[in-house]
Amino acid sequence: MSSTNINDLLQKASANEWNQWKQEQKETLKTTNSLAFSRRPFQKFDLSNVVFYPYSSFNDCCFIGTDLRGTILRSVTINNSDFTGADLSKTDLSSSELTDVNLSHTDLTDVDITYVKLTKVKFNQCVINPKKVNFSEILKTELKDIECDFVYLNKSKTERYPPSGYFVAGEFEKFIKGEIDMDNPQTNRKLLDGSGDHFRSELNIVNTDAERNQLQNEVNFLRKRLESMELQEKIYNHTRVKPRLEIILPICIVSIVFLVFSSILINKVDKQKIEVSVNYDVGIIMGGLLTGSAALIAALSYAKRNHTSNQNNRE
Fold it and tell me: Fewer CB within 10 Å, N or C, the chain?
């Protein structure tokens, strides 16, 4: 069978067609050039021990339940693909880049992830043991935005880590690098959020999905309550009338005017002197009242106009 037919089958064949043809082959199956797969369904394909040419790419592909035992996927690019339930034991992923990939419930026993770049990858409840992972000794493997609740340490799924609860922030990275003492895990767990705090047991009291969902609902309620309170405070601050200089200043001017006229009246009206004409005194009083009233009306109008203008500007 020619290599061209291998490439064509990988691009077009169904799972049954490929599996039947593969069983008839005796030699190791290899592609001789890099291939680009987009939205290719590989569910239930037997791709075990197939050697993919370096720099092949897989975009939006489905590997659910795929047999990838011993498959060579060295120096490939995998984006937005789902490997849920796939068997990747002894798979060689060295020097590859995986982004937005779901590896949940997969078997990663003896997987080779040396020099791999892992970004937004899910490892939830996969089978993986740091003692059986080929991991770069000089920390060339990159992990970023990794998601994992817990993992199983053996194929029979009788052992898990963490022993109870879920991984805390940054713990999976230390776990996969073999930096956690598996014989005494609780004393080695740390919350790596930049604070340097040691592991706190109260963060690990959520042991079931029901408790986790309840805690999430409570967090969402408190978040919405806080947003509501912040909105109410903004509305209150927006509608509250605050004393402003443009309101206080005219009132002060009016008060000064009244004080000046009152002083004049006191000086002019002297009960012990009758030389001052009554008509003259009445004229002064009426003039002061009219002037003060006009000043008060003008001040209040000015203050109201400024207040209305400020409200319109805020809106």
Answer: C
CA distance 190 to 237: 43
Phi, psi of 78 (to 5 degrees): -125, 120
Q: Terminus-to-terminus CA distance in the chain, angstroms?
A: 76
Question: Which DSSP letter does residue 258 get?
Answer: H
pLDDT profile of the chain (315 residues), mean per 10: 73 94 91 93 96 97 97 97 96 95 96 92 93 62 89 92 85 83 60 38 53 73 76 67 57 66 60 48 58 64 62 55
Maximum pairwise Cα distance, the chain = 138
Return the bridge partners of 122, or none.
Answer: 102, 147
Residues sharing a CB contact under 8 Å with residue 66, sequence separation 6 or more, in sequence order: 42, 43, 44, 45, 47, 83, 86, 87
Gap between the Cα atoms of 37 and 20, Å rounded = 21
Tell me the C-alpha distance between 224 and 254, whole Å. Answer: 49
Q: Which residues contact 210 (CB under 8 A, 6 or more apart)?
A: none
Collect contacts of 262-269 with beta carbons under 8 A, ≥24 apart. 262/288, 264/288
106 Cβ neighbours under 8 A, 6+ residues apart: 83, 84, 85, 86, 87, 88, 126, 127
Beta strands 160-161 and 151-152, pairing class: antiparallel
Radius of gyration from C-alpha coordinates of the chain: 40
| Cβ contacts of 121 within 8 Å, gap of 6 or more | 98, 99, 100, 101, 102, 103, 143, 145, 146, 147
Strand order in the sheet with 117-122: 36-38, 57-59, 77-82, 97-102, 117-122, 142-144
Beta-bridged to residue 190, according to DSSP, are: 198
CA atoms within 13 A on the CB side of 228: 6
pTM for this predicted structure: 0.59
CA neighbor of 160 nearest in space, from 148, 170, 145: 148
